[in-house]
Backbone:
């Protein structure tokens, strides 16, 4: 799906950005070989017995640098990011042009932001 490039708002400021709203985080085991397809080879996958922890993050933001929007983040697995670990987003879906543009502008070049 092609996303029209909306004029990015100038109010992003510098990180950290503040997002206010509610969210649901659902975790489940993902086979390491499945997760690895979405995670760059230079990152060490946190795994045990052939599995990592993946899932999804469903959020409804009432206030954010990109305005009001809903988003779904698909978590491929957990990667080691010294001195801690973090969830790796395989896909980010949002329902706002502005949130999509914001994510593409400030997000990782490895993450894909789509408007649904």
Residues:
């Amino acid at each position: 799906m092609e996303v029209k490039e909306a004029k990015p708002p100038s109010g992003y400021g510098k990180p950290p950005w503040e997002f206010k709203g509610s969210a649901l985080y659902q975790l489940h085991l993902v086979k390491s070989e499945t997760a690895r397809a979405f995670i760059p080879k230079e990152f060490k996958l946190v795994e045990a017995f052939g599995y990592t922890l993946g899932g999804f993050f469903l959020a409804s933001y009432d206030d954010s640098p990109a305005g009001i929007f809903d988003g779904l983040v698909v978590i491929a697995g957990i990667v080691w990011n010294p001195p801690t670990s973090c969830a790796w987003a395989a896909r980010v879906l949002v329902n706002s042009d502005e949130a999509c543009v914001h994510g593409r502008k400030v997000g990782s070049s490895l993450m894909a932001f789509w408007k649904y």
Notes: The CA atoms of residues 22 and 109 lie 26 Å apart.
